[in-house]
Structure formats: structure tokens, C-alpha cells
Amino acid sequence: MEKEQILDFTRRISQSNRSGLTVINYEIIFAYLDDAKKAYQEEKWEEFKVALRKAQNSIGELMQTLDFSYDISRNLYRIYVFCRDSLAAAMYKRSLTEIETAEKMLRKLYQSFCKVAETDSSAPMMKNTQQVYAGYTYGKGDLVENCQELDKSRGFFA
């Protein structure tokens, strides 16, 4: 994953609510899967394994956030286990087939979680973070984001 992507995910995480965090987690998984596919094409097997392990860890994060008081969580858990195991199989087989199978399933879930996130109007999970404003100024060929430090006592309180 490129540094710019990491910074974008970090900024979005700081501004997101609970369902938004789930959507971002899916996008992180897809970024790692793209990295794995790129490494596969270039036959960089160590990078291939690292990208798949990071994708597996992100799937593990999704598994940890499930609330098993809902029946659907059990089904989601099984899907996540299948996808995680498919990525493990792709790692030792050095195959894209298992990656594509897992990604196809995760993309369907991602679309569903995007719809849920659109209706979620809850407050962001992180409080006391910088406000990010986009669109006030434009750079050459792109949109410039501006972070304003309005509250100097941001962070941990002693």
C-alpha cells in the first residue's frame, strides 16, 4: 500500500462512525489484495505473502468486531473464515484463483455495508480530532484538503 493511501485511510478513520470504519476496513483489504496481485504479476513472492498476510489480518479485524447477539454475525463469521483460509491457500499455492474467489465474496459484502453506512448518521467514533475541510482550494490537477487546529488541547488529557 502506498504512503498516500495510508494517509487517506488514516484521515478517513479519524472522521468515521462505526459503519464507516467497517467500509474502510474492506477498502484496506482490497488495497492489500491489489498489492498481492501486483506482486504476483512481478513474481515477488515475499511481497505477495506480506500483502496476503496483511489482508488476512484485516479480515481478522472484521471478525473481531462481530456482535454475536445477532444471527447474521454467525454467517458473516463463516464467510470471513472462508475468505481468510482462501488467502492462506493462495499463499502456499501461489495462485490468484483463491484471491479472486475471496475478493468476489468480500466485494458483495462491501456493497451491502456501503448501503448501511449511507444510512448511519451516528457521530464519529474518534472525538477530539482535527477537522478536515476539502474543496476550499484547488491545487494543480487535484483537490487540496485543509486541516485546521481549532482546539489546541487535542489528544490525551492528564
Automatic annotation (TrEMBL):
Entry similarity comment: Belongs to the FliS family.
InterPro entries: FliS, FliS_sf
Subcellular compartments: Cytoplasm, Cytosol
Sorted UniProt keywords: Bacterial flagellum biogenesis, Cell projection, Chaperone, Cilium, Cytoplasm, Flagellum
Organism domain of life: Bacteria
Major subcellular site: cytoplasm
Name the UniProt record assigns to this protein: Putative flagellar protein FliS
Entry's Gene Ontology cellular component terms: cytosol
Record CDD domains: FliS
Entries under Gene3D superfamilies matching the protein: Flagellar protein FliS
Example GO biological process: bacterial-type flagellum-dependent cell motility
Cited Pfam families: FliS (PF02561)
